[in-house]
Amino acid sequence: SLDxxxxxxxxxxxDFYIKFRDIDWQDWIIAPEGYHxxxxxxxxxxxxxxxPGIASSFHAxxxxxxxxxxxxxxxxxCCVPTQRRxxxxxYFDSTQNIVKTxxxxxxxxxxxxx
Amino acid sequence: xxxxxxxxxxxxxxxxxxxxxxxxxxxxxxxxxxKLHLSERPNITQPVPRATLINALRKLHAGRLRKxxxxxxxxxxxxxxxRGYEMVSFADTDFSDTSKSGLAFQFSKEADANFQVLxxxxxxxxxxxxxxxxxxxARLFLASTGSSNRTFISQKKFEVAQGSxxxxxxxxxxxxxxxRGDKRLQLEVECQGCQNLAVLGSQSEPSRQPxxxxxxxxxxxxHNIRKR
Lengths: 114, 228
Hints:
By secondary structure, chain A is mainly beta. Chain A is 10% helix and 39% strand. Chain B is an alpha+beta fold. Helices cover 18% and strands 29% of the residues of chain B.
């Protein structure tokens, strides 16, 4: 998985961090102090399709067959999250009770082409 | 973008840098609120005193509270599959109960949310007493709104020679409360001969304010089948 730089146009992960204090949400979110809302961006040229997310799957094998035979028109590849991790949050709800919960798949860790 | 043959994903590349950041912040806000099942950010009008908060968290997560008051959050593992929540609710301080034995807790709950209470505990502080040296028994009842009926839910025997915290397991009572779909949980504390020793929401002792801890998870309904 690539991390985005200024010049890159190939599918990559862009780091984006929001500090809750900066958006005035620190009064109701106790922890953590911010959210890593990373996201995926960039192009997926044909030679990158199917990697690295589904490299060993049946689907990847089919895609490779299609590519090998020059059948590109049927295949469109997207830059999507291939790995995510959960986020634990501690916050006040609307009745000012403190709630702690673990939210799965909240933070994008890696991107790849479908 | 809905371009033919393109990817159905959100694009912000056509925007100026400042605008792009605003869009991303707005997306992040909406994402967090939807994951927490909130329609809008909670409006905190009366913040819980910091001492109260830290005390409750220290009791709940012993050893995982940093000096600055923030919590060292555990790495979620397989428990994530259960979509579990832990909740700390402080007793209302403005609850005017003439018998001075009542505790009230407020909950907000989506109408269709179906909670299973895994464990729920009430934390009560009893002041020290120089006159009472023997063991006393405190009982806890679930009160009904609009009637004098009450249901026994828990009791505990202890010595009140030294002031200390005491816990009462109230899992079934809280489950019954959620099953009824009520939003206000009312409990009554009965401690014969030691009634005045229980700290019941006194603002003069914020770090000893009673609180209720509940571990809950959303029940899966029987129709949650996904096509892949």
